[in-house]
Amino acid sequence: MSVLKNNILANFGGSLWTGLMNLVFIPLYIHFLGIEAYGLIGIFATLLALFALFDMGLSSSLNRELARLAIQEDKAQEMSDLVRTLEIPYWLAGLLIGVIVIMLSPFIAYHWVNAENLSPQTVQTAIMLMGLVVAFQWSICFYSCGLMGLERQVLLNGINVMMYTFRGLGAVLILWLVSPTVEAFFSWQIFVSFVHVSAIAIFLWRSLPHAPVPPRFRRSLLLNIWRFAASMTGINALRTVLTQLDKVILSRMLSLELFGYYALASVVAMNLYRFISPVFLATWPRLTNLVELGATTELTSLYHKSAQLVSVFVLPAALVVAFFSEEILLLWTQNPVTAGHAHVLVSILVIGTAFNGLMNIPFALQLAFGWTRLAFLADVVSVLLLVPLIIMLTKWYGALGAASAWVILNVGYIFSSIPIMHRRLLPTEKWRWYYEDVGRPLLAALVVAVIGRLVIKSDWSPSLLIVSLGLVSGGSLLASACAANQIDVVPRIKLFLSTIRLHLS
User: How far is it, in rounded angstroms, from Cα 66 to Cα 151?
Assistant: First the structure.
């Protein structure tokens, strides 16, 4: 389990460092570019998410297959051939995406984006540069999933920490010293994306076990994974619709400035995944190993421990951000107008994201078993029911309506998918998930956050607010961890107190 713990810690370290980079650099991007140009960065993030459809389930298949093959003997050649076989269509898809974005740039600039201060020519140039960024950045996910499947996540996070720091710091220096324009920003992103994908690709190939012959394309390997890959393609397509439709609609219906506020709120809420993804990414390959070995007892234990770990990190953070969104935005951006426009959106979106995050470990269990039908059907039903709801709420209430639809979507997942999943997988563990893995950590964190909201006043000085929010965050985290019976915090606290008493005596 030491490898798993190291991977989780590395994932958390890398994720938190990337979050810190956003915390530092996003206000500087807005300062140099303005909120309207930052809206274009939000559109770039939306395009990346939308074109995840072209992944075709290949990155997820690579992750699962490398995790499965790594514990078998004499599979070095098959692992090497698998990477080469999936690498070729992945790069072709990335190049195709880049061409599509460039070809769509006139339509987006002149007929979709409602810019007031930026000229259509500037917007078109920025969109074209986005296409080149995507062409290189696209394959970063593929090679990252390969390293995850090999459980080389310490190495992966080391690379990412260096590259995200280089990406953000370089962008700020370019905007400050060279040209404070959106064209300069995306030109820098092209260069960094090329360096980033090259580094990860090199290290993935070096991490594979030595194969007797050079890797080659094997059509038979595609045939072996096509069912799982096709299912993941459907799931990714549906979830892209569900998670990005609000941004697509709002980018058309709102001014670029107002969309910039929504994009900012979405970035804050999505940062919650920095507490979710580290556990999911480290747990999924290990769950796959345990399924392959038929180790049901260890599988059940890891499932609950991982689910509780997600709850402990996600729920306190989400509640504190939701209750203190305006204060946090004001402390972060130092801009009362931005905080005033975005804080309610942040509160709503972060709650929806927290509910979504709780489903990640159950989803990892399904992937470990290679069972994707439930997730696919659940997403089909969600699209059919909630897409009209998103459109109506956006029309009636604007950005707030779209944010509310995100909450409705994820509450529905929790109360429908979990019971169905546990009828087939770990059938006796459903109520443990609701009560032990989610309910107890949620209630404990909620009590501390509510008390904090009643005590802390918005007109306190910045330094006092920072200290107070830190205390509430720490208290919520500690209370949630103590309520989670698989985290072993209480015995550790008792041991620590006993050690202190022993030294004092």
Answer: 9
Query: Is 217 strand, coil or helix?
Result: coil
Residue 55's nearest CA partner among 236, 228, 194 is 236
Interatomic CA distance for residues 30 and 59, integer angstroms: 33
The CA distances from residue 26 to 32, 164, 193, 260, in Å, are: 10, 13, 18, 12
Report in angstroms the alpha-carbon separations of 462 from 144, 324, 326, 358: 39, 13, 13, 32
pLDDT at 62: 85
Other CB atoms within a 10 A radius of the CB of residue 73 amount to 6
In sequence order, which ranges of 210-359 are alpha helices (DSSP H)?
Answer: 219-253, 256-270, 273-293, 296-323, 325-333, 336-358
Cβ(184)–Cβ(174) below 8 Å: yes
For residues 188 and 196, what is the distance between their CA atoms, to the nearest angstrom? 12
Q: Mean per-residue pLDDT for 373-398?
A: 81
Amino acid at 351: I
- Tokens representing 432 are 């443990």
Is the CB of residue 229 less than 8 Å from the CB of residue 60? yes
Q: Give counts: helices (H), strands (E), the chain.
A: 21, 0
Phi and psi at residue 118, in whole multiples of 5°?
-90, 140
The number of beta carbons lying within 10 Å of the beta carbon of residue 496 is: 10
User: In the block, which residue shows the tokens 């931005």?
Assistant: 338
What is the pLDDT averaged over residues 91-106?
Answer: 87
pLDDT surpassing 50 at residue 70: yes
Q: Is the predicted pLDDT of residue 498 greater than 60, yes or no?
A: no
The residues, any chain, with a CB within 8 Å of residue 175's CB and separated by 6 or more, are: 28, 29, 32, 33, 181, 184, 185
What count of Cα atoms within 13 Å lies in the side-chain half-sphere of residue 82?
31
Taking the C-alpha atoms of 424, 430, 432 and 433 in order, what is their torsion angle to the nearest 10 degrees? Answer: 100
pLDDT band at 351 (very low <50, low <70, confident <90, very high): very high
Three-state DSSP string of 405-473: HHHHHHHHHHHHHHHHHHHHCCCCCHHHHHHHHHHHHHHHHHHHHHHHHHHCCCCCCHHHHHHHHHHHH
Interatomic CA distance for residues 395 and 260, integer angstroms: 18
Single out the residue of 463, 492, 424 nearest to residue 484, CA to CA. 492
CA nearest to 41, candidates 264, 346, 329 = 264
Q: Which residue has the tokens 């939306």?
A: 46
Instruction: For residue 52, give every residue at least 6 positions away whose Cβ sits within 8 Å of its Cβ, in sequence order, or none.
Output: 236, 240
Query: Rg of the Cα trace of the chain?
Result: 23
Asked if 487 and 308 touch (Cβ cutoff 8 Å), the reply is yes
DSSP letters along 73-119, please? SS-HHHHHHHHHHHHHHHHHHHHHHHHHHHHHHHHIIIII---SSS-
DSSP 151: T
Q: Which percentage of the chain shows pLDDT scores above 90?
A: 23
